[in-house]
Specification:
This protein has helices at residues 2-14, 20-32, 37-44, 48-60, 82-103, 108-131; strands at 35-36, 64-68, 76-80. By secondary structure, it is mainly α. A hairpin with a 7-residue loop joins strand 2 and strand 3.
């Protein structure tokens, strides 16, 4: 099931011209605002070198920009551009549309139960991640 979702996400996002990693990075910036490379690496559970590679790709596409930190010029803040926000919203709308299509195949009462179970699963994963850091 997880693999099916991963392939679906990859397919949906590649239609927007971005990879799954790029979309997750755009999401972090969309939700949290400008972040340093270290903050992005922590938020995405990736190495600094991987985040640097993804950011470099997104800078070339003009979806993010790098600016110097106000207090420390060695620190680079990564910020979502208007084009980056648009492609992020386009990618996730595509993902959400496919999720709606999938969920519509269930009766309403089953959808409600599924949502409750998925929230509990999400909380359990969050708790597990907090324990294992």
């Amino acid at each position: 099931l997880i693999k099916k979702y991963q392939f679906r996400d990859r397919s949906q996002m590649s239609c927007c011209g971005i990879s799954v990693s790029q979309c997750y990075l755009l999401e972090a910036l969309y939700r949290q605002g400008p972040l340093t490379m270290n903050q992005l690496a922590e938020a995405l559970h990736l190495s600094i070198s991987t985040v640097t590679r993804v950011v470099d790709q997104l800078v070339l596409k003009q979806y993010v920009s790098r600016t110097e930190g106000a207090d420390d010029r060695r620190v680079r803040l990564i910020q979502l551009t208007e084009a980056g926000e648009q492609v992020y919203q386009q990618a996730w709308e595509s993902v959400f549309a496919s999720e709606r299509t999938i969920l519509e195949q269930f009766p309403e009462e089953h959808r409600e139960m599924l949502i409750v179970f998925l929230r509990k699963l999400n909380q359990a994963v969050d708790h597990w991640q907090a324990c294992c850091r």
